[in-house]
């Protein structure tokens, strides 16, 4: 009797009848077509069309020779994009006629050895429906097996140690395949043909549960873990790109413990829910939200909350939700884990996600009560990706698992470039052969762990695409004190600095490969190093990537007393901005109730000592948040601005505060004076917050009209504000371009650096 593994092949292998071939062609298929089951797919497709020839992984993608009787070639070629594996992304199919060679069958040939691998290792994939079905079948060899996978699903980037992508160079190297798995691996008709991480319970890794009291493995580990979650335990769970900390999302007491142990007071936690139905219960999902939740990226999707889950996302109208994506997640829910789980990157506050077992056990000691540890190592850390949905479609807020590494755009670079990004929310971009590959989110480089991860990622990408650092153009932020800039200085080769806000604007245009488009470029964020050494963050440029960007309009300069601390204390930023106003009332008293820190900062601003000049719109948001009632210290980046947005969503007024363009400055003084007066008149803070959002949207419209370009581009952390984006959509419609594939925050900077440096190098 045939073994179940072979019976599972659903595609019938219709062997070609040996009629003489009368036409032949060569195909060259580029894009993400390697490591995603593309060759076995073509093998089955060719056989289904009774074609003969061969397929191989070539230098620039997949090469195919097919021949057969007239007419079948065309339908074969037409079927490729329609039926390609879910994880494949075809950039182009080039076809040229070839001579009939008289092949007897269709074969998968050995890959050609190349000088520089352009094998695009695909991002990690969620478990597919075929594997899920097998995993739920008690008669299947891989019943309830947490490492089930096939060529259509499972880990990729997170297990690759080196290229070419082959099992001995993955973290599966420690588990030799059993005969059963090996047969599937070598059978071109099988779904697991050349699936590098293929494994089964007989030959592969397992999960182990460690608590104070015991250590169990296999299915028992998973069912015990599900029970512990139900009982209110905090678990560290090893996933695809690192450890998560997890607990029942409906137990405020447990969530409170998690926050206390992790030193994470208020920053929202992401949720993993059992399935789409549960997602619909906790959040208001549009069709785009649902599509994004189920996409192969399986990101955390931000959506308006429907119910309050106490402690999960305090004072935030949105929840971050994701669906299960590894077999283990599905097994935990099947074993009875609570249907909504907090699922947050396992680390202490702001450290990068833990991904090595020893590191996790040590760092999470005292945070997690128990550890669910998978035996397969993780080759590199990758957080969950985060996406939002707005009037311009979906947008990536954190580019990580399921997206990285990925070619984001073609850039006109004549040489390889390493673009190091900015220090906050760092991500890097490597340009090889004119393709810009964006790394996963790395983190804030002021933390030692993140800086280490940054250096590892540079080495990693350079190795993966076989570029030597000495041949690279190294591109970095213009900030002389950024850790990324100082790191750049340690590298040999040619260097180029790119101004932060120009890189923000260029990131949007580089995504679209719009290098010549003349735009009005709006860059609003918290902090970036300006041409004049002051702290920029409210800049409007005119120009194009090709010709460069000229700063045309900016926020009126404000004082910023005390430097960096001002970013953590909204009242401190307020002291600086408000020092430009005449007739200011006493803000220490009601209704403002500013703390004493404000008085001190106001005195510093007056004296000019340790006072900086800024055009930061991020600090303007902080100032308005302080005036509307957020007078305490923030506990995570942009918290006050998010609070203000949350507040503004709850109001309905359509009026805007005055925010005029005087000369080439957007003058915030009338804006702030009116807000102070409104607050004294007892206007509701929510209405104030909303009228302020309208004012910012109006100011952008005013600037766009004044500069007159057809397209306005907006980037920078401020544009993660979904209310502001909605108000801009009303004003600018199709005339506005925002980031889609890289974040509007500093996570997108390295792609903008790539676009600008490429255009520069192309003209010199
Ligand atoms: Zn699968
Ligand atoms: Zn096996
Ligand atoms: Fe920025």
Any descriptors?
globular; 764 residues; disordered N terminus; binds fe (iii) ion; DHBP synthase; Alpha-Beta Plaits; Nucleotidyltransferase, domain 5; seven-stranded mixed sheet; 4 domains; 22 helices; eleven-stranded mixed sheet; binds zinc ion; alpha/beta
Characterize the largest beta sheet: strand count, sense, and whether it forms a barrel.
11 strands, mixed
CATH superfamily of the largest domain: ATPase, nucleotide binding domain
Residue windows where pLDDT falls under 50 for at least 5 positions? 1-17
**Helical percent range?**
25-40%
**Distinct ligand kinds:** zinc ion, fe (iii) ion
What oligomerization state is this entry in?
Answer: single chain
Q: What is the CATH top level name of the largest domain?
A: Alpha Beta
- C-alpha end-to-end distance: 69 Å
Shape from CA axes?
globular
Count of DSSP-assigned helices: 22
Structural class: alpha/beta
CATH topology of the largest domain: Nucleotidyltransferase, domain 5
**Fraction of residues in β-strands:** 15-25%
Count of β-strands: 31
Strand ordering within the main sheet: 7-6-14-8-9-13-10-12-11-15-16
Overall radius of gyration: 28 Å
The average pLDDT value, as a whole number, equals 92
Instruction: Indicate the CATH architecture of the largest domain.
Output: 2-Layer Sandwich
Q: Structurally, how many domains make up the residues?
A: 4
